[in-house]
Amino acid sequence: MTDIVTHRGIQICRYDVPYTPFFWTHDETDGYGTACTVAVAKDQIDKHLTKRTRTDD
Predict the structure, then answer these.
(1) ∠33-55-27 over CA atoms, to 5°?
(2) How many Cβ atoms from other residues are within 10 Å of residue 20's Cβ?
(3) Of 5, 18, 49, 53, whose CA is between 20 and 30 Å from 27?
């Protein structure tokens, strides 16, 4: 893996293979996703964490 970005404590990664999607996993909440860009992955993470926060209340 080369591209690694951290957003809200969750790593967004991509393998060294051309045209592979970015992926993220959040072990604490069993959350995961794939995205074509880092921006889309960040949006997915934001939505996932917001959803988890609302269901935890």
Answers:
(1) 40
(2) 13
(3) 18
* Total-model pTM: 0.82
Name residue 49's amino acid. L
For residues 3 and 14, is the Cβ–Cβ distance under 8 A?
A: yes
Q: From the centroid of its chain, how far is CA 30?
A: 11
Cβ atoms < 10 Å from Cβ of 31: 17
User: What are the φ/ψ torsions at residue 35 (nearest 5 degrees)?
Assistant: -150, 155
Tens of pLDDT, residue by residue, the chain (57 residues): 667 899 999 999 999 888 899 999 998 888 999 999 999 999 999 999 998 766 655
